[in-house]
Amino acid sequence: MSPPPLADLHLHSHHSDGLLTPEALIELCASRGVTLAALTDHDTVAGCESARLACDRHGLQHVTGVEVSCGWNGQTLHVIGLDFDPAHAELTAHLSHIRARRADRLIEIGERLERKASIAVRPLVTRILGETDVPTRMHLARSLIAAGHARDVSEAFDLWLSRGTPGHVPEEWPALAVTVAALRAAGARVVLAHPHRYRLSGGALRRLLGEFREAGGEAIEVSVAGIGPSDLDRLATLARNLGFAASTGSDFHDPAVPWNPPGRFAKLPADLEPLAARLG
Ligand code: AMP
Ligand code: MN
Ligand code: MN
Ligand code: MN
């Protein structure tokens, strides 16, 4: 008997701010019963080919994925592209532009922390920039912990990296419509990631979803690890009423974090159309 379908369409590897190689990640997915996987690293497709080969070895269905940083009305949003051509020139140029911004931003965060909080962050920043193509605040959070400036990732963000802290740098990512267009040009199906995490009123979220659809978005993440029942219900209602397909994923980064292993997220309400059914 074939296993029940379990689509994890939101996963990170060490090509961005996850800790596992794509091979180890897919092996973990296989051991946890995932049947369809998309590696969705932040702003890079560098791990996609390894993920595809690992999925072939473990008998998982695979689609190409990426989680792209973008801006909308002063907010940072994450948009996921799935099942596209990872070599498409417009998309790869879009992603390398964001990675260059990320590097500049990390340097600026380091300078602010040195200036305002007198922490010797520059050596940490230099090391991160030498080690990854996609420098994220998560990398700096881990370095700050290792240097004794925070006990855990959430404290590192609360003390040094979030809005209102000495290391906060206002973000300027490409606009939502431009982002969706770059993904669509490469043939992607486009998903708004974790809509419940943005600090938006109900009205603003509906406006966002209207613009997202207008730009070419077709799905929203409804079942994502860590979402509570009332948010899930709210997103399910929006997907239903606005005609979006529903996506599922763990947003897995780190095997030491016990609550969101690959494949662990709530079941979608039965009347929603799973985006996974349109893939492959
Ligand atoms: P960046 O894209 O560089 O802003 O880095 C953000 C990454 O750090 C996200 O993809 C999350 O994985 C993680 N992150 C962001 N905010 C927090 C937070 N408050 N606590 C823990 N992790 C966070
Ligand atoms: Mn991340
Ligand atoms: Mn995200
Ligand atoms: Mn993510």
Give the helices and strands as they follow along the chain: EHEHEEEHHHHHEHEHE
Total strands: 8
At the first level of CATH, what is the class of the largest domain? Alpha Beta
* Spatial sequence of strands, sheet with the most strands: 4-5-6-7-8
Mean pLDDT: 97
Structure description:
The protein is of the alpha/beta class. The chain has 2 domains: 7-88 and 175-278, Metal-dependent hydrolases (TIM Barrel, Alpha-Beta Barrel); 94-161, no CATH class. It is 42% helix and 15% strand. It has helices at 22-31, 48-58, 89-117, 122-131, 137-146, 153-161, 176-185, 202-215, 229-242; strands spanning 7-11, 36-39, 61-62, 65-72, 75-82, 189-192, 219-224, 245-249. The protein has a 5-stranded mixed beta sheet with strand order 4-5-6-7-8. The radius of gyration is 18 Å and the shape is globular. Residues 17, 42, 69, 136-138, 153-154, 157, 253 line the site of adenosine monophosphate.
